[in-house]
Automatic annotation (TrEMBL):
UspA domain span: 9-144, 154-280
InterPro entries the UniProt entry points to: Rossmann-like_a/b/a_fold, UspA
Protein name (database record): Universal stress protein family protein
Superkingdom of source: Bacteria
Gene3D superfamilies: HUPs (3.40.50.620)
Length: 306
């Protein structure tokens, strides 16, 4: 059984807002749970935006605003969690797509907030977070700005599809459930296969594939109680339903700098009501060649520019 689990610190994006401190709280709880160092990251642009509504007032330099956001986050953490948590705070000029992967290149996970945007803008933001996971190489946890601690945080759910794309996501889900001393729900959706297979033999094949995928991790983490779900519903709809009862949804996504479409992961990040972990799959050479040869469907590719 191979493992890709990363060690190292937890990185979290700091945006300077009051709601953003909830994302910092989430990161603190993760770091305290596993005994990891916490890195506070604040990207900023070189030039401040000028407001025509305040023509006589010069905007504050973005670097100073980023540093002020970091100082406020550090003060919040020390006030709420004391000095038992090791902190590093980093501000760096550049877009979040460039700065965050650099700061989190040795991290075990990167935690960011989910935008309140709706419709296409939320899908665009979700695609941006998929790019972060692909470029950083570590799981990216997207946390709703409305998140608050609850008893559901101990439960984890992961979506698998029987392909290598789910391998790292499944391992991450088991480790998270073990760290939280909670339960794990493993969901396999087969909407397309249900329509194609009137004899329902896909259930037998899916159950066999799920048993094979779970066996090594169930042996590694015998304390994790696993519930298996096979469903004929759309994968995103099934995961959204589970997100109402769990503290973390885990999905797999492609790693690397190429803009490979992950429509299920993108829609999941945009639609979930709880935090979502995007776990990058690092393909083999053969997998990469197959992906490059596969045509990209119209509407499947969304390229963030920020």
């Amino acid at each position: 059984m191979s493992t890709w689990a990363r060690t190292g610190p937890i990185a979290v994006e700091v945006d300077g807002t009051a709601e953003g401190l909830r994302i910092v709280d989430y990161a603190c709880m993760e770091a305290l749970r596993i005994g990891a160092e916490l890195i506070l990251a604040a990207p900023y642009h070189a030039h401040a935006a000028h407001s025509p509504m305040q023509p006589g007032q010069l905007p504050e330099p973005p670097a100073e605003l980023a540093d002020a956001s970091l100082r406020a986050a550090v003060a919040h953490i020390r006030h709420r969690y004391g000095y038992g948590l090791q902190l590093n705070a980093v501000s760096q000029e550049g877009s979040r797509q460039r700065v965050l992967p650099t700061i989190a290149r040795h991290a075990r996970m990167l935690i960011v907030g989910r935008t309140r945007a709706r419709g296409p803008q939320r899908l665009l933001a979700a695609q941006g977070n998929l790019f972060l996971a692909g470029r950083t190489g570590c799981p990216v946890v997207v946390v709703p700005l409305s998140w608050r601690p609850s008893a559901a945080d101990r439960k984890v759910a992961v979506g698998i599809d029987g392909t290598p794309l789910s391998a790292e996501a499944l391992e991450f889900a088991f480790r998270e459930a073990a760290d939280r001393e909670g339960d794990l729900i493993v969901l396999h959706a087969g909407e397309d296969k249900v329509r194609e297979d009137a004899g329902h033999s896909w259930i037998t094949r899916a159950d066999h594939a799920m048993s094979e995928a779970l066996a090594p991790w169930a042996s590694e983490f015998p304390e994790v109680r696993v519930t298996r779900f096979l469903t004929g519903r759309d994968a995103v709809a099934a995961l959204v339903h589970e997100s109402r009862e769990v503290g973390l949804i885990v999905v797999g996504a492609h790693a690397g700098p190429l803009a490979i479409a992950d429509p299920v992961a993108r829609r999941s990040v945009a639609a979930m009501t709880c935090p979502v972990a995007i776990v990058p799959h690092h393909p083999t050479v053969a997998e990469r060649e197959r992906l490059l040869a596969k045509p990209v469907l119209r509407g499947e590719l969304v390229v963030p520019t920020y």
